[in-house]
Amino acid sequence: MSAPLEERMQQLEARVRNIENIEDIRRVLALYPKALDARDAGLMATMFSRDVQLVVVPWNVDIQGHGAVMDFFVQYFKSDWKDPRHNYANEHITPEGDGYHSFCYFHETLARGTESVVGWGTWEDRFVLEDGKWKIGRRLITVMALTPITRGWAMPDKIMPL
Predict the structure, then answer these.
(1) Which residue intervals of the chain are DSSP H helices?
(2) What is the domain-level CATH number for residue 22?
(3) d(CA 109, CA 119)
(4) Dihedral in degrees, nearest 10, Cα atoms 130, 135, 137, 143
(5) Do the Cβ atoms of 106 and 120 come closer than 8 Å?
(6) pTM for the full predicted model
(7) 28: domain range?
(8) Residue 86, CA distances (Å) to 11, 22, 119 in order
(9) What is the pLDDT of residues 137-155, one digit of tens each?
(10) 39-80 pLDDT tens trace
C-alpha cells in the first residue's frame, strides 16, 4: 500500500528543494571561474559566507573570514599572473548536515611574464545557506600541478611558487 498523499507530497517537496539547492550551488560553482578570470572582486565577494575559510595546498594558505579571503583574491588579481582561464569538471554535490559538499577538478591556463603555464587540481567546498543564498563556507584548493608548458608537468618540482 502506498504512503498517504500528505506524506508523498512532503517527500516530493523535499526532493524538489534538494534539486533546487543543487542547481543554486552549481550556479555559484560556475560563477567562481568567471569572477577569477575577470578579476571581478565584486562578483567574487557574493560567493563567500561571512566566516568563510580558504585553504590552498601546497602553499600553506589558511585564511578565515570574508575580508581576509577577499584580500587574498585582490592581491592575486594584482599579481603578475596574466590571462587566466579556469575550467572545472566532474562536479559532485551531496547534502552534508545542514549544508552541501561539492568536489570538482579544475584546469587552468595562464601566463607569467613570457611563460605559458598550465595547472590543475581540485576544488572541494562546504556550502552554507546564508541570507537565503548558498555560499561557499569553506574552499579547499589543492594544486596538483602548476608549471610552464616548456618544463612539463612530469617533474618532481611541478608546482611553481605562489
Answers:
(1) 5-38, 41-45, 66-78
(2) 3.10.450.50
(3) 6
(4) 180
(5) yes
(6) 0.91
(7) 5-148
(8) 38, 21, 9
(9) 999 999 999 999 998 776 7
(10) 999 999 999 999 999 999 999 999 999 999 999 999 999 999
